[in-house]
Write a structure and sequence with these properties.
This protein is α+β, with helices and mostly antiparallel strands and about 625 residues long. The chain folds into two domains: about 260 residues, Beta-galactosidase, Chain A, domain 5; about 170 residues, no CATH class. Helices cover about 45% and strands about 25% of the residues. The strands form four sheets. Strands 7, 8, 9, 10, 12, 13, 15, 16, 19 and 20 form a ten-stranded antiparallel beta sheet that branches. A six-stranded antiparallel beta sheet has the order 6-5-11-18-17-14. Helix 6 packs across helix 11, helix 7 packs parallel to helix 14 and helix 12 packs antiparallel against helix 13. The protein is elongated. The termini are far apart.
């Protein structure tokens, strides 16, 4: 092989080796690129998984969808048009209310009460949400509920300013249901008329549910406060009725005595269904909603509503109150709705009449001249004290007489010793001869106690005090908290009410003042401490009460102290009283029947105490 051939083979070998290296490099690059693409596709598949496809069904999926749609459409053709539709919300409002209705069911799902705000100064809704409904069970399609129907609606304005919304649902085959709401231009009482066509029946069943929203300062007080803040009220055609306070556990009411109205009352707002002809029967279930702080309570009711027949139509008319628990407003409807303002019930029912015929007229008379409700409380306190001033004077005069006679009583006690019965008899003789009535000091309390109890019911129940501020208190209808403890004390609470402290302090001062002005019985040491124990007990009880009430009691105590000081200082002269008592002793006293009876009872007890015990025969 010559030199040229060797050189040619060497060049070919170099070219081959170069090609092999180049080819190997390109393969590595290709494999790396493919590996990267595979990894990217796997990552994408994890993030965007493709739905699994059953190969056995893949071929028929499109056909099945078409068949299902066709079946649904065929089913729709066999059912009334009102079974399907689009749910819409329609708002109707007047000067008092703004109501939102739903076209599915044709009932209000939200009720805003204008002119009022929540404690947080937000628009006040008595209820809001789809959990609120009013539906009728139709005698059609195995008891079809109007809540499941889609209604068409027509809204119009009447010349007198009333707003009318007419919901209509065509059920086919000549059957139809209309629900017509009429909202007066300036009223809280809405009218509702249910008209059924082509569905003969003597009555229709109504289902009503309300979820009351939290609107006040303290949800606990709003649910189960001292006035039983959340309650159910109803009244029958015969004028009788009842009320029930809601609690955590579910309660039920059943009544067949033709109830005229049923009311669901929160602390300051209510919703009421009224049938002037009377429901055939009524079943109610209610409970507070402790699991949701935004809801106060839940009320469910079922009615049998009699129908009036007019040709092919059966109809029923209702009235629906949605508004405040304003006493004058509720009273104006003249069907007993004012009973939902608790002015006294149970054993204290008698104070309701003091409120209705005395204190409330005075309150509204003063409200004509001022909107400062704290000033009205002060004026009412002065007025009440002025009325009771004669009896107060008699009380302090009686205390002064007994205080003047204390030296004689002390001498009598020392003379008689420990014989309490004999001392009581001689004490009565001494009082009678001097012309002293030991019960004279009780007269102011006898007349004042019903007033105090009346205020106890009236002030926390009156919506006029709601969100009215005075001094440090932002809301006279709730407690005036000046400090939150961060923990709860049994019988007291988790805050400090300044008006309650002032009421307690003034009560203690009044007790001390009275103790110094009234002779004490040394044989009854417990009476020495009772005037101090009672105000302390009331401090715990009133710490969660409305500030309007504790402010009234504070004013009453301060006026009592001032009144007592003035009477003692300028109207009672103990020297003159002592001279008069001594003069009375020289005159023959004609004992009263009450004194004679008391003396006879004391003698009888004394004789029984001296009778020797009977000996047992052996």
């Amino acid at each position: 092989m010559d030199r040229n051939q060797v050189t040619g083979f060497a060049l070919l070998a170099l070219l081959l080796i170069g090609y092999l290296f180049y080819n190997q490099h390109e393969q590595k690059l290709y494999q790396a690129n493919q590996a990267k693409k595979t990894a990217d596709s796997i990552s994408y598949a994890k993030v965007h998984p493709r739905p699994a496809v059953d190969s056995s069904k893949a071929a028929t999926s499109t056909g099945a969808t078409t068949i299902a749609d066709s079946a649904t459409e065929a089913l729709r053709r066999t059912q009334p048009a009102s079974y399907y539709g689009e749910e819409k919300t329609i708002t109707v409002e007047n000067k008092k209310l703004s109501l939102q209705f739903t076209s599915k069911g044709a009932f209000p799902i939200a009720a805003q009460i204008k002119g009022y705000k929540t404690y947080d100064q937000k628009p006040l809704y008595l209820f809001n949400g789809k959990g609120n409904y009013l539906s009728a069970i139709l005698p059609f399609d195995n008891g079809k509920s109007t809540a499941d129907l889609y209604f068409t609606s027509v809204t119009k304005d009447e010349p007198n300013g009333d707003k009318v919304i007419d919901f209509s649902a065509d059920l086919g085959a000549g059957k139809k249901v209309d629900i017509v709401y009429t909202l007066p231009a300036d009223d809280y009482m809405m009218r509702c008329k249910i008209v059924m066509t082509g569905m003969p029946a003597s009555s229709v069943k109504l289902d009503w549910q309300t979820l009351g929203l939290h609107t006040e300062k303290d949800v606990k007080t709003e649910r189960t406060g001292s006035r039983g803040s959340t309650q159910v009220y109803y009244r029958n055609k015969n004028g009788e009725g009842d009320y029930f306070t809601m609690h955590d556990e579910e309660k039920q009411i059943h009544d067949d005595a033709s109830p005229v109205w049923l009311g669901f009352r929160k602390q300051y707002f209510s919703t009421v269904l009224v049938d002037d002809d009377g429901f055939a029967k009524m079943d109610v279930k209610y409970k507070t909603r402790t699991d949701d702080t935004n809801l106060v309570a839940q009320n469910e009711a079922t009615f049998e509503l009699p129908l009036k027949v007019n040709g092919q139509e059966e109809s029923a008319s209702l009235r629906w109150y949605i508004g405040p628990n304003d006493y004058n407003t509720l009273l104006s409807y003249k069907i007993g709705l004012d009973d939902m303002v608790p002015l006294g019930y149970g054993v204290m029912a008698f104070v309701k009449y003091i409120n209705k015929f005395a204190l409330i007229p005075i309150f509204y008379f003063l409200a004509r001249f001022t909107t400062n409700y704290a000033l009205i409380i002060i004026i009412m306190t002065l007025f009440i004290r002025l009325i009771l001033s004669f009896f107060t004077y008699k009380s302090y005069l009686s205390s002064a007489k007994m205080r003047v006679m204390k030296p004689e009583l002390d001498a009598l006690r020392e003379k008689i010793g420990d014989d309490q019965q004999k001392f009581s008899m001689e004490q009565m003789k001494l009082y009678r001869s001097a012309g002293v009535n030991p019960l004279g000091g009780c007269l102011p309390m006898v007349f004042q106690l019903p007033i105090l109890l009346s205020m106890y019911y009236m002030f926390p129940s009156f919506i006029e005090f709601r969100q009215q501020s005075f001094l440090w208190c932002k809301d006279l209808s709730s407690y005036d908290s000046i400090f939150n403890l961060g923990f709860s004390i049994p019988w007291y609470g988790d805050h400090v009410s300044l008006f309650t402290l002032l009421m307690t302090a003034s009560s203690l001062f009044l007790a001390v003042y009275n103790r110094n002005m009234t002779p004490q019985d040394p044989n009854n040491p417990m009476m020495k401490y009772m005037p101090y124990v009672f105000p302390i007990m009331l401090m715990g009880m009133f710490n969660n009460m409305a500030a309007a009430l504790t402010f009234y009691y504070t004013c009453s105590n301060l006026l009592s102290i001032a009144q007592q000081f003035i009477i003692q200082k300028y109207f009672i002269d103990e020297k003159t009283i002592h001279a008069q008592l001594q003069e009375n002793k020289s005159k023959p006293a004609a004992p009263s029947k009450w004194s004679q009876r008391l003396e006879e009872m004391q003698k009888l007890q004394q004789e029984r105490g001296k009778t020797p015990p009977r000996q047992n025969k052996k």
